[in-house]
Write a structure and sequence with these properties.
mainly alpha, YtxH domain-containing protein
């Protein structure tokens, strides 16, 4: 039975030691938490103040940026109008040139057809005139 009591004492004391360590760790954690609370409050205050300062400093920049965006929008709309007019002029010019080329092509085609027709008529007459009479 000496062995059984040895193990009971060994594990029993280990259990008590772990409970004591857990209690000490909990106490240390609570103490650290209490000591850190003022630092956490200071960090929160610093963050809030920094955010407020950043917001205060950035407001004029944001206002300026808004103004510049508005001006850029006005300038861009002027360029869009001018570009639209220019594109319209280019389209009209292309239509005119295409119309001229189409007209020239029609004239050339008509002349070619007339010339071919005349050549065919001339050739047909020549063939008829050269044909020997079989009577």
């Amino acid at each position: 039975m000496g062995l059984t009591s040895f193990f009971k004492n060994l594990f029993g004391s280990a259990k008590e030691t772990s409970v004591d360590l857990a209690n000490k760790a909990e106490d240390a954690f609570e103490q650290a938490k209490e000591e850190a609370a003022p630092l956490i409050n200071k960090a929160e205050t610093f963050a809030e103040e920094s955010f407020a300062k950043a917001k205060e400093v950035s407001e004029p920049i944001i206002d300026s940026a808004t103004e510049y965006v508005s001006q850029a929008k006005d300038i861009a709309s002027e360029f869009v109008e001018k570009a639209s007019e220019s594109i319209s002029d280019v389209i009209d010019s292309v239509k005119e040139k295409a119309s001229e080329f189409t007209g020239e092509a029609k004239t050339t085609t008509t002349k070619t057809i007339v010339d071919l027709s005349e050549e065919t008529t001339t050739t047909t007459e020549e063939i008829i005139n050269k044909k020997p009479a079989t009577e």
